[in-house]
Structures are given as C-alpha cells and as structure tokens.
Design a protein that fits this description.
This is 5-hydroxyisourate hydrolase. Homotetramer. It catalyses: 5-hydroxyisourate + H2O = 5-hydroxy-2-oxo-4-ureido-2,5-dihydro-1H-imidazole-5-carboxylate + H(+). Keywords: Hydrolase, Purine metabolism. By secondary structure, this protein is mainly beta. The protein has one domain: Sandwich (Immunoglobulin-like), CATH 2.60.40.180. The chain is 6% helix and 45% strand. Strands 1, 2, 5, 8 and 9 form a five-stranded mixed β-sheet that branches. Strands 4-3-6-7 form a four-stranded antiparallel β-sheet. It is globular. The two termini are 13 Å apart. The model has no long low-confidence stretch (mean pLDDT 95).
Length: 108
C-alpha cells in the first residue's frame, strides 16, 4: 500500500465513484503519483511508500467523472491540500461527491 490512498463515493448515485482520475502533487506542483479509482471507488496506490513532512495536494478529476455520465457539475476538479507530519504511517483521503457539492476528511 502506498503512503496516500483515496476513496470517492458518489452521493447522488449512492455508489462508489469508479473512474475518477486522481493526482498527488508536492507543494511546488511536482506530480508524485496518479491513479484512477477502481470499481469500489478506491485508489490503493497513489504515489510513493513514504513522504517527507510538508504540504501536499490531491486533485480529483470530478468534472470529467460527471461529464462521462452525462451530468452537469459545478467543480471541474476538487483539490485537497493537506500536511504530512513526521511519524505518521499512512494518509487516507475520502471524498463524498455530488455534482454541486463535496466533503472530505482525513480517513483511516
């Protein structure tokens, strides 16, 4: 398992969001990993096995996800900025998604 994992749920469909493109970036914008959610809306391998303490960004391709389903949406991407602290073993970033709103938190 990578140091960063993610899970996307489509609140309007009540199902996992399959096929969402996700990128992991450093604070200076360097891409560290990229993946696409599986049938369960999960990405188990998003980047390296460890990260140095600091700021990072995960970008979820939400507009393309809804467009592929023929749905309008407000957010072309959802960007989650977060800080990695020393001594942490893993970061999980869930996203609860609808065409016009989203919510996220630090998962386990």
């Amino acid at each position: 398992m990578s140091y960063i994992t993610a899970h996307v749920l489509d609140a309007t469909a009540g199902t996992p969001a399959r096929g969402v493109e996700i990128q992991l970036l450093s604070a200076v914008g360097q891409q560290l990993g990229a993946a696409v959610t599986d049938a369960d809306g999960r990405v188990a391998d998003l980047g390296p096995e460890t990260l140095e303490p600091g700021d990072y960004r995960v970008i979820f391709g939400t507009g393309a996800y809804f467009s592929a389903r023929g749905q309008e949406s407000f957010h072309p991407v959802v960007t989650v900025d977060f800080a990695v602290k020393a001594g942490e073993a893993h970061y999980h970033i869930p996203l609860l998604l609808s065409p016009f709103a989203y919510s996220t938190y630090r998962g386990s």
